[in-house]
């Protein structure tokens, strides 16, 4: 079966990594709770849900960026009205929320270490949308980016499907809340967010997109951790039990994780839009994916102990490959497209100019003396040359007269000199 195949492949990878002597790396076995090899079918279902959510997120992010572009006033350099008053923005946000619900369902089937890095699939969908829908060019570096993302996704899936993963249940969540690593995770998020807001934002936020996107990733990391708990506790069609919503032991975790999920999602959305208002999509997308993926994996590792040996040996290289592929496709893409279109426009302007010059040359034999000033003007000579060609204000004296005499037709109508 598919599950046995994945478990066998993962066991081979585990034995190979141990034989190669990688066990000295500072990642231990998963020890908290009752760890077991997760169902490979559940992990593959989670993978499919991530793909569907990535397509939806691609569309909604482009719709939000469209709103910001239309709302920009080039005279004042500011928004015409606040973007929350535009109906299309709300439609995009609602659609984005539905896509995130699909991502939430994926977290009920697969660990965050698998779901968070696979957000790079939205960049792949965006690349194809730009080429086939928006008619943007396909660059060579896009092909390189797609190859890197494909290799990265393969590494992540092979490293995480069938790897040991904790069952996110109410007893396990009680162990999580009582662990020191959970409080270390919360303290690190609070310290990093305070550093960004109090120190980095006043100094760098107007020049660099990474400030607001790093703040968004801090909220996003907490959102991912809360979503992992909430989705795992929900009943069918997910893997949990709806009784967790009302049971004496389960309801604090069920409703507490939902409340944390909503609050941090709003914070992530607001800071993300601050970056989208000020910077281009080609800067926002790769940086956001980089920070969000790292934050999601970091939260899963500290909060839920999901970063286990030896799956980390494929997860981390796969994450690095995905980040590299996202940067190849998205970073400064708008500038590359603008340069290509400007070059194409310049070529189109040269062609009619060449045709007009050829037409002027062929019609020179039929020109009269009185029409020379208009021809000189159409050829855009310098002012001094134009004045000399028309004889200045004297109508035909001096150098202008000589030029006219030289351009007069020969006997027989030949006008080769003109």
Write a brief structural summary.
With 418 residues, this protein is mainly α. Helices cover 70% and strands 2% of the residues.
Account of the 3D structure:
Helices cover 70% and strands 2% of the residues. With 418 residues, it is mainly alpha-helical. The chain has a two-stranded antiparallel sheet with strand order 1-4. Strand 2 (72-73) and strand 3 (78-79) form a beta hairpin. The longest helix has 31 residues, at 40-70. The protein is globular and about 80 Å long.
Q: Strand tally, please?
A: 4
The biggest sheet, with number of strands, parallel, antiparallel or mixed sense and barrel status, is: 2 strands, antiparallel
Round the mean pLDDT to the nearest integer and report it: 74
Distance between the termini: 87 Å
What are the low-pLDDT stretches, counting only 5+ consecutive residues below 50?
Answer: 1-7, 16-28, 363-418
Rg estimate, integer Å: 32 Å
Order of secondary-structure elements: HEHEEHHHHEHHHHHHHHHH
Helix segment tally: 16
Strand content: under 5%
Please identify the structural class as seen in this structure: mainly alpha
- Spatial arrangement of strands, main beta sheet: 1-4
Helical coverage, percent range: 55-70%
Shape: globular
């Amino acid at each position: 079966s598919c599950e046995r195949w994945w478990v066998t492949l993962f066991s081979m990878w585990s034995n190979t990594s141990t034989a190669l002597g990688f066990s000295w790396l500072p990642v231990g076995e998963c020890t908290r709770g009752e760890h077991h090899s997760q169902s490979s079918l559940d992990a593959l279902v989670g993978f499919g849900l991530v793909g569907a959510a990535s397509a939806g997120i691609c569309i909604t992010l482009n719709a939000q960026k469209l709103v910001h572009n239309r709302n920009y006033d080039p005279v004042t350099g500011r928004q015409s009205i606040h973007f929350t008053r535009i109906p299309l923005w709300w439609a995009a946000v609602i659609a984005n929320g539905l896509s995130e619900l699909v991502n939430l369902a994926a977290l009920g089937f697969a660990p965050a270490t698998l779901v968070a890095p696979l957000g790079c699939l939205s960049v792949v969908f965006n690349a194809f949308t730009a080429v086939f829908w928006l008619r943007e060019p396909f660059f060579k570096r896009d092909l390189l980016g797609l190859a890197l993302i494909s290799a990265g996704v393969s590494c992540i899936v092979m490293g995480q499907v069938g790897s040991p993963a904790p069952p996110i249940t109410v007893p396990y969540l009680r162990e999580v809340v009582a662990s020191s690593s959970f409080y270390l995770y919360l303290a690190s998020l609070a310290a990093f967010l305070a550093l960004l807001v109090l120190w980095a934002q006043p100094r760098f936020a107007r020049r660099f997109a990474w400030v607001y996107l790093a703040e968004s990733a801090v909220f996003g990391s907490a959102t991912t951790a809360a979503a992992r708990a909430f989705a795992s506790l929900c009943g069918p069609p997910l893997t949990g039990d709806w009784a967790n919503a009302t049971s004496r032991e389960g309801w604090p975790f069920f409703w507490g994780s939902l409340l944390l999920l909503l609050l941090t999602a709003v914070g992530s959305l607001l800071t993300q839009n601050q970056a989208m208002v000020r910077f281009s999509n080609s800067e926002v997308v790769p940086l956001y994916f980089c920070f969000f993926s790292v934050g999601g994996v970091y939260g899963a590792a500290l909060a839920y102990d999901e970063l286990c040996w030896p799956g980390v040996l494929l997860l981390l290289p796969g994450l690095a490959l995905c980040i590299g592929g996202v940067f190849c496709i998205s970073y400064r893409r708008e500038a590359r497209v603008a340069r290509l279109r400007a070059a194409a426009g310049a070529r189109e302007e040269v062609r009619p100019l060449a045709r007009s010059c050829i037409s002027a040359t062929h019609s020179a034999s039929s020109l009269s003396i009185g029409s020379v000033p208009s021809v000189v003007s159409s050829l855009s000579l310098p002012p001094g040359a134009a004045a000399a060609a028309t004889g200045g204000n004297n109508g035909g004296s001096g150098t202008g007269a000589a030029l006219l005499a030289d351009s007069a037709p020969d006997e027989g109508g030949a006008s080769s000199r003109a």
